[in-house]
Amino acid sequence: MAEPSAATLLEVRDLSMHFPVTSAGVLRRVVGQVKAVDGVSFCVREGETLSVVGESGCGKTTLGRCIMRIYDPTAGSIRYRTRNEGEVVDLTALDGRALRPYRRDIRMIFQDPYASLNPRMTVEEIVGEPLVLAGHPRNKALHRRVGDLLEQVGLRREYMARYPHAFSGGERQRIGIARALSLNPRLLVADEAVSALDVSVQAQTINLLKKLQVEYKLTYVFIAHDLSVVEYISDRVAVMYVGKLVELAPTRALFARPAHPYTEALLSAVPIPDPRLRKKVERIRLAGEIADPSNVPSGCPFHTRCAYSDGNRCVREVPALRTLEDDRQVACHYAETLELKGAPQVAT
Ligand SMILES: Nc1ncnc2c1ncn2[C@@H]1O[C@H](COP(=O)(O)OP(=O)(O)OP(=O)(O)O)[C@@H](O)[C@H]1O
């Protein structure tokens, strides 16, 4: 097996996370599985923002939680290139103490800035906690470090003594970001990190994340459903459908010309608020509901909703994820022959 290249910080290989479905009643028997993530493979390159998109329930959060090792994946590996030159570890093979150094390197920013901060702790305790847990003494140096972190996320150091309730949603998210930065991480997994914020606050937070990415040489896995945000922030975009990766491509290429019919349908729904600015692009309405991850369709999981399904091979054969010329991977039997439309563009 080839080693991940020098530019690869994290390599996810054939990753699956299947949750058991149990029967009701006292004798809970396992009667099925929810295939929340199913055989997903991709690389995260150092310094990039890789976004993960897809409809609700397609497995984005589960994937993020597997990378964080909040979940123990059912199968597959997550290979991480450590700070030691050339060393690659499989995070899925590590536990407890052995995993600790990498927990510092890979941190998470959570969706809900209201629920993710302990209301009984001061900002100083919240931001300093990861350092204290890592063995940093509670001293003046810690106090200074927390103050510096707050300033780096655009908050005043005097705010340290306050409690979370004294802050707005955007400020709370900044406190969460300061906390995530406290251990000098290399990779941040941001799960819907700006979804709960007002549009103007979203923009400020995204710009902050971009600034911090440059300053700290950070790599982001950005889980999101808002494609306008994704287009703005990402270098590459991974599209998931019922637990599977169906397309991964550089952002501009993906938005201009999707290769998977599901990506085309997702992009056609990108809203452009002013109808006069919209070029006429047909909105593709997806027929039916997203497939059920506890009962994934045969063949291509998207065939039940796909306007291009041939009703034969697409129903029988699971398409492999193939690499195309333009640094793109796609899982569709007919990716090369379909003439798909990109996202609606603003008329000029
Ligand atoms: N702990 C769990 N036990 C059982 N099923 C789960 C668990 N966590 C997630 N699932 C199921 O796995 C599937 C994927 O869920 P996940 O939350 O990863 O999707 P998502 O794409 O992040 O959705 P959303 O955008 O709504 O957050 C869903 O069908 C969900 O119900």
From TrEMBL:
Its main location: membrane. Keywords: ATP-binding, Nucleotide-binding, Transport. GO terms for cellular component: plasma membrane. One of its GO terms (biological process) is transmembrane transport. The keyword Nucleotide-binding applies. PROSITE patterns: ABC_TRANSPORTER_1 (PS00211), ABC_TRANSPORTER_2 (PS50893). It is a peripheral membrane protein. Residues 10-267 form the ABC transporter domain. SUPFAM superfamilies: P-loop containing nucleoside triphosphate hydrolases. GO terms for molecular function: ATP binding; ATP hydrolysis activity. It is found in: Cell inner membrane. Pfam families: ABC_tran (PF00005), oligo_HPY (PF08352). InterPro entries: AAA+_ATPase (IPR003593), ABC_transp_ATP-bind (IPR050319), ABC_transporter-like_ATP-bd (IPR003439), ABC_transporter-like_CS (IPR017871), Oligopep_ABC_C (IPR013563), P-loop_NTPase (IPR027417). Belongs to the ABC transporter superfamily. This is Peptide ABC transporter ATP-binding protein. It comes from Devosia geojensis.
